[in-house]
Amino acid sequence: MGRSKAIPLFPHPALLLEKGGERALVIADLHIGWEMALSEQGIHIPSQTRRFLERILGLIRDHEPSLLILLGDVKHTIAKADMAEWRDVPEFLDALRRSVREVVLVPGNHDGGIDPLLPSGIKVLGASGMRLWDRYGLLHGHAWPGPELLECDLLIMAHMHPTVTLSDPLGFRIIQQVWIRGRCDRGGLRERVGRRKAGVGKRGDLDCLIMPSFNDFLGGQSINRGDLGEVEYIGPILRSGLMELGESDVYMLDGTYLGKAKGLIRGD
Is the link from the previous residue into 8 a cis peptide, with omega within 30 of 0? Predict the structure, then answer.
């Protein structure tokens, strides 16, 4: 049994999981077709799907995973598929399927109605997530994790599109995508998902990792805008307060460590 590792692929918003000779590449929040939603507001941006595909294929060539895990929100519209998604999603997924041995989709809240867009060979799991090598629990984050994920050592989520807002003394601001590494109350999660039997399963807090969105044009939730206790973050785990967000470590896409989330709070 080889040791397992979770490796953020700085400066890419992608995660590599390794165990022995096995490798899994994880990406999240592509939101293919989001350009169409912007065009309806008078903002015209060329499709980014080809660029996303080339970046992912480059990661596959560099790291040679046997498994690609799409951690939710492959498409942008929530309960249907628009014209751009009907055009781009099947071609995009087919190119990925031909480049790696197995592709798994853990659906997000934007993946409703995606089944007709899926080429053969794409495995779709439930919103409660998947367990990999008994070490990693993976879910999009808009639903509670399945009970089996709580027996893992690391819970990997997306959905939040975490960012930080950085500003200088003159008031110029930029928004940067970030990774968040923190801990969840494992016992509290067990109660929420209906596993309350005392003395069963692993003890202690559960390590958690929140991934940045692979689509770098998207907005997200800035973890340093306002008081952490007053902001209603998306996803049941964050809303429940079972993850100690203030004590979580924050990293930029290039790996720069920014510190604990509670030390980054701004008032505006």
Answer: no
Q: What is the pTM of this model?
A: 0.90
Position 127, amino acid: A
Contact in structure between 87 and 116 (CB atoms under 8 Å): no
| pLDDT tens string 55-69 | 999 999 999 999 999
Q: Please report how many Cα atoms fall inside a 13 Å half-sphere around the Cα of residue 223, on the Cβ side.
A: 30
Query: Contact at 8 Å (CB) between 140 and 157?
Result: yes
- Residue 266, both tokens: 């701004």
β-strand partners of 93: none
Rounded to 5 degrees, what angle do the CA atoms 141, 25, 187 make? 35
Residues 173, 7, 52: CA angle, nearest 5 degrees: 60
HSE-up of 247 (CA within 13 Å, CB side)?
A: 11
Give the E-state strand segments of the chain in sequence order.
4-8, 15-19, 22-27, 67-70, 102-105, 122-124, 130-132, 136-138, 154-157, 162-167, 173-184, 206-210, 221-222, 249-252, 257-260
